[in-house]
């Protein structure tokens, strides 16, 4: 069970914020609410916008629930704005925009599920309280009736918000049975809000974790992404693992609990991984920096960087443990898992690349690299260099202060070396001193495999020695060509 990482506001503070919430609603919302009331329909602000307002967060997108059916919602919205859209009529939702204000209005719901595909069998409801009962957690089951500004909280969500508690409004077994993805949302909200999952709710998650298998990979992925972008990621991940949900989402993560890291004898690889994730997050930059946070790729790479250790674990003579080539195995495992979760190709490629390279720096502290090795490090990292800097630094979790300082100093030195080379040459876009057209002209050859071989030879020389200049490059090219013909 995950514990709260921050002290939530008191109930009195939340109530004072509530008064401000009602006063701060845009006047356009009042006009919309009055039109629904005049037509004999209820309208209420519901869910996340209500919760976030109590937490002092504003939202440009406002969610409403209404007694009106979709056709009537659309008719009333068109009186309020010309910009309306049918975003899910079969589910009872119609959207609209007025200036910068975006609203989504959904008919009171009483969903039923077929138990197999997880697709809701839509059943429209007749009461706000019934609609709130079918929501995931009590902190999301609060509403404000409009235009009367009556606060509706049938499941005491405000007290749970003040206590930093995640609890289902109805029996959690029933709630999770209706939609197993709500178990993932519990872990996600633990990360986003830093809240504790109520014991009964958590027990139901553990008992029903295997039900997550019937949820589509895309829906699971979306919740995982939100979890990874939260402010208390460690709590969210711990909830996944401790409940057993991770076995159906990221089985590689709980597998790390059994593995002892040879560099960190005081902790297993699982705890090491959670620490690396936290430290990587701490190294993200502001919006104007090279790795603006929250950065999903960096966080996923930190999470998956050591998943290759379990399959590569070997007991060595004398009682030692090794994980040779775990970065190679782990990179392939990371790509396979992310593809199974339907992540996009760019994310999969970037995370796979970072996992593959995360050990490249090891050894620099003992033997300072040549300029050639530094160039190769930059070129191999490519567009992921700044993330690799942060992943490598975050991977140091030793309690040995002297060792930690030595590694930090060594990486400072490497970054300084990279900066120096950038001033001297285009180290981020290294290419031979001669291009393909020049190679063909100098050697008198036509396009073909030999041009590629010559280009590769010159690129190796450029990596090894830095910029050669056209004259020396030409001489080196001719010498290589003659050696081939000898």
Automatic annotation (TrEMBL):
Keywords: Magnesium, Metal-binding, Nucleotide-binding, Nucleotidyltransferase, Transferase, tRNA processing. One of its GO terms (molecular function) is metal ion binding. Pfam families: HD, PolyA_pol, PolyA_pol_RNAbd. Its cofactor is Mg(2+). InterPro entries: Bact_CCA-adding_enz_type3_sf, HD/PDEase_dom, HD_domain, HDIG_dom, NT_sf, PolA_pol_head_dom, PolyA_RNA-bd, tRNA_adenylyltransferase. GO terms for biological process: tRNA processing. Residues 265-409 form the HD/PDEase domain. The keyword Membrane does not apply. It comes from the Bacteria. NCBIfam families: HDIG (TIGR00277), tRNA_CCA_actino (TIGR02692). This is Poly(A) polymerase. It comes from Demequina mangrovi. The lineage of its organism: Bacteria, Bacillati, Actinomycetota, Actinomycetes, Micrococcales.
